[in-house]
Amino acid sequence: MNRATSLGVLSLLAVVGVAATFFVHQATAPRIKHEQRALAARTLLDILPAASYDNQPLDQPLPLEHAQLSHSILLGGYRATHGGQPSAVLLRSEVSGYGGPIELLIVISANGKLLGSKALAHAETPGLGARIAERPNAWLQGFIGKSLGDPGDAGWGLKKDHGQFDQMAGATITSRAVIEGIHDSLRYFDEHRQQLLGSPAHE
C-alpha cells in the first residue's frame, strides 16, 4: 500500500469516526437532556407539595436574573400553577454565608406564606454551617408558614439580634444570612406579587 493510499484510508476512517460520533451524540442527546431535566425537577420541586401544582414549573421561568435585594441576590424563579391558577413561586436566592455564597431555594405560596426552603449549594464549615444542607432540616422547617407580616420586619432576625428565631448551633453567620435571604424573598414577593403570579392571587 503506497503512501497516498494509506493517507486516503486514514482520512476515510477519520470521516467515518466523526460521522459515527455525531450520530451517536444526536441519538443520545434527547435522552441526556431528559435526564438532566428530571434531575433539575427533583432538585427544585421536591419541597413543593405535589398536590399544589399540576404544571411543569421549570417551563415557566420568571425574569428575575440577578435582582439585587437588601441582603441577597435573586438568581431566578419559577411559577407553579394548579388548575390554571398560580399556586406558588419558587425563588432561587444567593446570600453570603461564612464560607462563601449560599444558594437557596425559597418556595412561597400564592397567599404569601413560606412553603419551604433549602440550600442548593454552599461552602460552609462541615459540622457547623454545612448543616444548612441536611435533609430533613428541622431548623429550616421552623420557617414554614411564616410570611412577611408573621413576624413583622423586626422579628425577622436571630434572637441575639432581637429577632424571633433561634440559630443553628455554632453557625451564627450562616443562620443570619439564611434568615435575611428568606426575609428578602418574602418582601420581594409581596412587592411584586402581580408580576410573579401573573394574575391576582386568592386566599
Helix content: 25-40%
What composes the largest sheet?
6 strands, antiparallel
Number of helices: 4
C-alpha Rg, in Å? 23 Å
Q: How many domains is the backbone divided into?
A: 2
Mean pLDDT: 86
* H/E series: HEEEEEEHHH
Give the low-confidence spans.
none
First-residue to last-residue Cα separation? 82 Å
Principal-axis shape equals: elongated
User: Helix/strand-derived class?
Assistant: alpha+beta
Strand percentage lies at 15-25%
β-strand number:
6
What would your notes on this structure say?
The chain is 35% helix and 21% strand. The protein is α+β, with helices and mostly antiparallel strands and 203 residues long. It has two domains: 1-45; 52-197. Strands 1, 2, 3, 4, 5 and 6 form a six-stranded antiparallel sheet that branches. A hairpin with a 4-residue loop joins strand 4 (85-96) and strand 5 (101-109). The longest helix is centred in the N-terminal third of the chain and has 43 residues, at 3-45. The model has no long low-confidence stretch (mean pLDDT 86). Residues 97-189 form the FMN-binding domain. It is an enzyme of class 7 (translocase).
Features:
203 residues, alpha+beta, 2 domains, six-stranded antiparallel β-sheet, 4 helices, 6 strands, 35% helix, 21% strand, elongated, cell membrane, cell inner membrane, flavoprotein
